Amino acid sequence: MNTYHLSPTLSPAPRILIIEDDVELCTHLSNHLSRRGFALNSTHCGDQGLDLALHSPVELILLDIMLPNESGLNILARLRHARGTPVILMSALGAEQDRITGFSQGADDYLPKPFSLAELDVRIDALLRRVAIDCGVAKPLARHSTSGLDSDARDFTCNGRAAGLTASEFRLLCTLHAHRGETLSKAFLYQQVLHRPYTRLDRGLDVHVCNLRRKLAAIDVQGIRIDAVRHQGYVLLCDSA
After folding, report:
1. Which has more confidence, 134 or 241?
2. Residue 105 and residue 10 share a domain
3. Considering 116, 133, 150, which residue would you say is the last residue of a domain?
4. Which tens digits make up the pLDDT trace of 132-154?
5. Which of 84, 116, 110, 115 is nearest to 98 (CA)?
């Protein structure tokens, strides 16, 4: 029988939800992160994990891909319809396609198993730091006053419609806008947005750009374009003054 532990929700510490079916690993991660001062929720079952992700306050989710009852990728896809909570995928699956699938469905980072606690700490700290920075961002992006970056929701809105950006997509848009008109290299964007080195076979950034373009087009955003510059990177062009 799968059980899960609920930490007090009134704690001011950042709240992390661990969805991991390996009981020993889940306990190990929970004990380590609790010692670091985080408030922890955890479950070993996919359907319970989805329920917690949707209905409990949480700042970050550690999500295994291979889960009973509901796969991690299905949980991620369903979560992204409702929330932009940062998600770090954990999996022993190491194929490039698995990473691409995870990023295309809205993952913010990916940790291949086995990983060290030191690497986990660095990834968590970087992601929470980026979220904190995102919360302080609120800028108009297009010329129309009804369009802009919403720092509270960490999203982009146009005429009252939200794009439904993930945390990584929001960071990407903020970074491109801060350097609008300037071509940014993939190496720079990987460090600034994804906080990991760029390698030639890593398509994570390209997937995020594709998703960002699609979501902006879906809410009929005008006057904003993200162009690929061959052998260089990406540039954001817009009508803002």
Report:
1. 134
2. yes
3. 133
4. 665 554 444 544 446 677 776 78
5. 110
Read off φ and ψ for residue 110, nearest 5 degrees.
Answer: -145, 125
One domain for residues 234 and 203: yes
For residues 52-73, average pLDDT: 90
Q: Are 142 and 223 within 8 A, CB to CB? A: yes
How many Å apart are CA 16 and CA 7, to the nearest integer? Answer: 10
Q: What is the pTM of this model?
A: 0.58
- Looking at residue 217, its pLDDT comes to 93
Q: Residue count of the chain, please give it.
A: 241
The strand pair at 60-64 and 87-91 is best described as parallel
Dihedral sign computed on CA atoms, order 16, 20, 23, 26: negative
The predicted structure's pLDDT at residue 30: 95
We report the CATH number of the domain holding residue 198 as: 1.10.10.10
DSSP 131-154: HHHHHT-----SSSTTEEEETTTT
> Do 140 and 128 share a structural domain?
no
Any idea what the CATH number is for the domain that residue 14 is in?
3.40.50.2300
How confident is the model at residue 141, as a pLDDT? 52
Give the domain-ending residue among 86, 105, 133. Answer: 133
